[in-house]
Every structure is written in structure tokens, then in C-alpha cells.
TrEMBL record, chain A:
GO CC, alphabetical: ATP-binding cassette (ABC) transporter complex
A GO BP entry: response to zinc ion
First-listed, main subcellular location of the protein, grouped into a coarse class: membrane
Descriptive protein name: Manganese/zinc/iron transport system permease protein
Domain of life: Bacteria
InterPro entries: ABC_BtuC-like, ABC_TroCD
Membrane topology: Multi-pass membrane protein
TrEMBL record, chain B:
Source species taxonomy: Bacteria, Pseudomonadati, Bacteroidota, Flavobacteriia, Flavobacteriales
Full protein name: Manganese/zinc/iron transport system permease protein
Entry similarity comment: Belongs to the ABC-3 integral membrane protein family.
Source organism of this protein record: Olleya aquimaris
Signal peptide boundaries: none
Record flagged with keyword DNA damage: no
Subcellular location: Cell membrane
Residue stretches spanning the membrane: 6-28, 37-54, 60-78, 90-107, 144-163, 175-198, 204-224, 231-250, 256-276
CDD domains: TM_ABC_iron-siderophores_like
Amino acid sequence: MELAEYFKLVFTDYTLRTITLGTAILGAVTGMLGSFAVLRKQSLLGDAISHAALPGIAIAFLITGAKDSNTLLLGALVSGLVGTFWIRGIVKKTHLKSDTALGLILSLFFGFGMLLLTFIQKQPNANQAGLDKYLFGQAATLVESDVWLMAIITGLCLFVLLLFWKEFKILLFDADYTKTLGFNTKTIDILITSFIVLAIVLGLQTVGVVLMSAMLLAPAAAARQWTNSLSKMVFLAAIFGAFSGVFGTAISASQTNLSTGPVIVLVAAVFVIISFVFSPSRGLLFKQIRFIKNRRDLELHKTLALMHHIAETHDDISHPHAIKLLNNFQGFTRKTLQKLVEKNYVTLDGNMWSLTKTGFETAKNLYTKQTTEDE
Amino acid sequence: MNSAQIEIQLIASLVAIACAIPGTFLVLRKMAMISDAISHSILPGIVIGFFITQDLNSPLLIVLAAFTGIITVVLVEYIQKTGLVKEDTAIGLVFPALFSIGVILIAKNANDVHLDVDAVLVGELALAPFDRLLISGVDVGPKSLWIIGVILLITIALLIAFFKELKISTFDKGLAASLGFSPAIIHYGLMTVSSVTTVGAFDAVGAILVVALMIAPAATAYLLTTDLKKMLGLSVFFGVFSAISGYWLAHVLDASIAGSITTVLGMVFLLVYLFAPSKGVIAVMYREKQQRTEVSLLTFLLHLKNHNEVEERHVNHLREHINWQKVRAKTVLELALKNNMILIDNDVVSLTQKGDTFTSKAIDYIITNEDAQIEDMKDDFFLFRG
């Protein structure tokens, strides 16, 4: 199937429409909540939680014996929350650092989940096939009720986010101040963490345990580069997430043998790379350009200062001097000289240069006042 | 026990030791999550290596995959250096992207060959003894045993050779640099060893178990000791213990060996986490409670010292004044009495000679901002602790 065909079919074909909607909503909600995870320096929490959700899925299946996705997700939610609070407990009560706690919970829960999964596979119950789709996710298994569930939870997230916007924001940037204002920081903290867990669990069916953390981080990290305002960042992250979902689904649907999860993650990674390079204020490209420009300005200033130094010794400031004089000076090039002429700081006459009045004045004030204008 | 069982346990134990050594340093250097990143992002290296060699145990594949691991570390550090995102975000961005590339490469090209993602993630230790290494037709044991054995030997040799350097650079980077040890070489050396170990272990035990075997024994040991050599020894012990008992758990449950080993590791950690003598949760909670009472006691004694008026020192008044609940007030009063700090005469509390000296000293420490000294002073004065 070609990409164009996909976009034609997306409005008519039931499966495609469901999957596309599902991944778009998922991308939006994870992007939104991911912004908080990234800003709270809890980026890897998503990775740990998504792995920690696995035993919950297995236990929910063991108890109910049914493969109803809502029950399994509930199990995942509980075990994700247990993992999260255990991580907090380890960091708070022992001297183990957060990276160790994350890695511990991640690998231990996941290993336990694998133990349960392999244990279930050996059970004489034909119903168990397909549990391992939660490892990498299978967007193709999304049905309309799943999308409804996602939409409802997204709506709930949005509602809570708007309701407690002020609290979330202040906790994010100044936790101590929040406490002194009398907010119950613990409750706000638990609320936002629980919603992050919820968003992760929601994505397990589509993207899977292993790649879910990227869904949380990538849109937020990309959005962070374009703005310094929290509301804009959350909004942008939601957009980036939704687009990653749609494009990822489109690309994987247009090729055979491409699972949706990894493709969505790669599309999100492309968003990140573009943002890293091309963002106007923080991006690497413009940073490099600014860096080169600053260096050139500095060289120009240094040359001008040297000229001023030489010209100072004469009564007549525009007394001509040989260009040779400047040759051994660091920062002097033919180009800087040309530039100085253009700016009317210097006049050239054959092999001689002389400082103009403006040039002399500028050079005199070069290090005594802060020049803001660009050279 | 048949020979296959012994071989499996031997491989598992060797993997556990090989992981515990770099794991200890990763935990101490706060880089535990790097091992998670490496274990995921070696996937594209393994896949590409597999396409070239068509053999999961070829040395070239290990080299390529370890190289991908180092690329991951370099990429993470590069992104972090740009200052655009924090380190943890950088890790979280790099490895899923590389892992996705690996998964897609497998899905597009390797449908008909023996390599699937589940096997990479979880490994299948039970099959390890069946892949034999033949040297000129003679069976010398399972291939994975040899691979992990060689990696372990190299790791131990490096550990012994560079123990001093590793130790100094782990605990005091500045000192290490000023003594002339290059922090970069030690850092990348450790990263290389971690990558090679991860790769060597992955096809026997899978990527996730590698992470568990690196972090869990070291973290468990760290709760029990603060001596580097003891910590290394303990993590090796916990690793091997979990490997062997995990194998038998899997045997009983008929489930994945890697999963069982991780589960045992988890249970060992949970036990130590709860019951470790000085750093376990229960010990910490007990100590916190003790300190809370002792701080209350100090506040109480300071109050007594500040007031000579009889009405200020009446038992009932104190309760209102310091706003303690009845039980709390009673505990503090009893503690003070037991330690001979106060006298109660007709419900009026007064400091004894000892209580007075204690309080004066405490005030001295508080006003000179040496609050920590009060902790030491308690040993001299207290007969009973809170």
C-alpha cells in the first residue's frame, strides 16, 4: 500500500481509522504528560514504569483467566504504581541513588513478569496466546472500545491538568516555595505521577513495554526546544506526539512487516533531531552560527583596538600606517580589514591604512561601554 | 543432575560474576541506567553483525555489538553536552531509537532466520548447552561458556590491574585527575567492559537479565557495606547465589530461567532492603523514630532551661505550651527521667545537674552551627536512647 493510498483509506477503512485515531490520541496524551516527566527530571521513570507494568498484566490474566484488555491494563496500572512507589521508597529511605533504583525496579519487575509469562504459557489454557504482544505492542489489535477508553482518559487528564494547572506548574519549578505557600506537595506529586503511570499503561497495548518510554520523552524533548513557556510546551508536545502517531501508523501500514511501535518511536526521534538542530533559540545550527558570528565580531574588535593603539601615538589620528604592521596580529585578516572599510572606520590608500574619526571614536569606547549593536 | 544442568548453572554463575564486577562500579558511579541503555541499543549491532556472519556466537558480532554500545554512550554524552536536555532524557531518547532500528531491521530482513526480538530480550539459557564449541572435531563445551569465560577472565585481569585507578576515580574524580589518571580512559574503559559483558551475556540470558545482574547484586551489596572490596565480593556472592537458586526455581515452575533468576535477585534485594542492619528500611525507620523523640527531648530540655518560673515548668502546662499529644509528652518525660536529666517534684519539672550540662553544651553546638556534634554528645550522656 502506498502512502497516498493510506491517506485515502484512513477515512473509510474501519481498522485504519481506529488505529490512526488510537495512536494519535496516545501520542497527544503521552506528549502532554511527558512534558512534566521531562521537566521534573523523571525521564527514565517512564522506562521503569512501563517495564514494571508487565507482571501486573500477567497477574491480572492469572487471576481472571480472560484476555480482556481493560482488566489487563488495570493490572498493569496497579503494578506500575507499586513500582513507582517502591522507587520513591528506595530513593527516600536508603542511600541508593535514583538511577540505581530505576534500573533495579525496571529489571526486577520485568524479569518477574517474564517468569509469569513463561509460566502462563505452560498452563493448559488455550486462551493465553497473545499476551506477549504487550512486549512490543501491536497497534493492529486496537478496537473501537480501546480508542474510546483512550479518549476518555485523555479527556480526564486534560481536565485534571487544567484544574490543577497552577499547582502543577509551581511544583515543577519551585517545590520548596510550593510547600511554604501551604499546598500539599505530596498529593500534587502523587497526582501527576499517577497520571504519568496511567498514560504509560495506556500505551502498552500499542507501543509495548520496551518502547513506551520514548513516546513519553521524545515529543516533550522536541517541544522543549521551541519554547520556554510551559503551556506552549505541553501543547506542542501533544501535537508532536499526535503527529508521530499518525505518521508512524501511516508508514508502517504502507509497508509490509513493519510493526507500528518502533516506527512511531523513530518518527518521534526524527522530530527530536529536527528540533535539536533547527530550533531558532536553542538549536545546534543557530547556536553554531551565533558562535561563528561572535568570534568574527571579536576579531574585528581586536583589530580595531590595535589600530587605535597605533593611531593614538600620533597627533593626527588619520595618519596613514602600513598594512604590514597588522600582519602578525592575531585576528587580523584581509576580510576584517575589508569589513572595517565597509563600516567606514578605516580608509585604505594603497598599502597604507588610516583610522577615520568614527573609527577612532568607536575604538576608544570599545572596552569602556557595552556595545549592543551587531557589527 | 545431568551434565547439561551443570553447564547451565555454570554459565549462569559465570555471567553473574562477569556482570557483578562492572555493575558495582556502575552503581557507585551513578550510571546504572547506562547499562539499561547499552543492553537495548546493542540490538542493531547484533542484527547487523548477524547479517554479516550468520552466526550468533561469532566474535565479530560481539565486537560490532560492543561498538554499538560505546556509540550509545558517546551519543548520550554528546546530547547531554549540548545542554538541550538533561542526561536522563538523553539516555531515554537514544536507546529506544536504536532499539527501534534493530527491531525494524529484524522485521524487514530476518523473518526466515533464527533471530527474534523476544530471544534477544529474554534469552534462552536452557538452550545454551546445545550449541557446542568444536575444536578440530573435539567437543570442548558449550560456546556461551567459553565466550563468557573469556570475558570474565579479561574483566578480572583488568579489575586487578586497574583496581587502584578505578577506586580513586569512582570516589574522587578530581583527585584521580590531579594524580594523572585520565578519567576519560577509565570511563570509556568501564563502558567498553560493560558493553562487551552485556553482549557476551545477552544470548545466554537476554538483555533485561543482564541489567538485573549488573544492578541488583551491586545495589544489594551497597546496602550492606561501604567497603569497595567487600561490596565486590558480596555482589559476586549474591549474583551467583541468585543464578543457581533461580535455575532451580525455573526447574520447579517450568518457566524461563532468566525470569526466575531475576525474581530471586528481586527477593534477595527485598529482604536486604527491609532488614539490612543499618541501611535497611526498618532500621532507618527505627532510627528516624528514635531521632524524633530525641529532638523532642532536646526541645523540652531547652524549654526547661529557659524558664525558671514554676508555672512554666508544670507538667500540664508543658503539654499545652509545647503542644504535644499526651503519649508523646509521656514518652519524652519518661526518657528524660530515665536518663537522669530531670526531676519531677509535685508535678513541677526541673533540670538535674546532668540535664543542665547537656543542655548548655547542646546550645553551644547549636549557636556555633555544629548541630552534627550533638549526635556524638548523645553517646556520652544517654543511658537509654529514644
